[in-house]
């Protein structure tokens, strides 16, 4: 629900010029009208996928899930593919992860392939830190931030029981991975 609200707020706050840049319809030609266009003024609205927008995703959940699923078909074990959605509801995300791992269909060591596909090779550590994944109260330091950039320099080489607190924040990891996918060109 919160994810939907953030997406709606992000869409409502877009200026006509921004909407025109991402619309399949041609933008109107205002060159000779003398009108001051929003694109000629410093951008006032926050960009999706940034701290200014509270990391509102740039792509719809449906499109993002499609990209995620395509990657999982190529790189993730079949038993883990139920995790290949950008679920940002805390209870739903946690239960899906626990069910996949506890059932034995998805081994803990195989979750890294899901994280790789979720991130779409983007570094989402800033979003994860913004949403508290490095909060001192978790007592893990920056350890969980590597889940937000699994292909990066300090990415995922293995997942152990020490990472349970990170995985219990699967919804944050998932939300930030979704928000890190840039607009398609």
UniProtKB/TrEMBL annotation:
Q: State the source organism's domain of life.
A: Eukaryota
Keyword Membrane in the entry? The reply is: no
Question: What InterPro entries would the database entry show?
Answer: DB
Tell me the first and last residues of the signal peptide.
1-20
Domain Domain of unknown function DB spans what residues? 71-176
Q: Which UniProt keywords apply?
A: Signal
The reply on keyword Signal is yes
Q: What is this protein called?
A: DB domain-containing protein
């Amino acid at each position: 629900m919160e994810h939907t609200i953030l997406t709606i707020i992000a869409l409502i706050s877009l200026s006509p010029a921004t909407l025109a840049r991402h619309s399949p319809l041609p933008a109107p030609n205002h060159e000779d009208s003398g009108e001051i266009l929003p694109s000629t003024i410093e951008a006032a609205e926050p960009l999706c996928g940034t701290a200014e927008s509270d990391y509102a995703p740039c792509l719809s959940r449906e499109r993002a899930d499609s990209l995620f699923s395509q990657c999982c078909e190529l790189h993730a074990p079949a038993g883990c593919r139920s995790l290949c959605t950008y679920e940002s509801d805390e209870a739903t995300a946690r239960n899906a992860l626990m069910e996949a791992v506890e059932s034995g269909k998805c081994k803990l060591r195989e979750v890294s392939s899901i994280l790789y596909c979720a991130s779409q090779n983007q570094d989402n550590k800033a979003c994860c830190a913004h949403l508290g994944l490095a909060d001192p109260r978790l007592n893990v330091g920056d350890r969980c931030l590597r889940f937000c950039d699994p292909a990066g320099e300090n990415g995922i080489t293995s997942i152990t029981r020490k990472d349970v607190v990170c995985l219990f924040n699967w919804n944050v990891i998932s939300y930030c991975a979704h928000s890190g996918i840039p607009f398609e060109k």
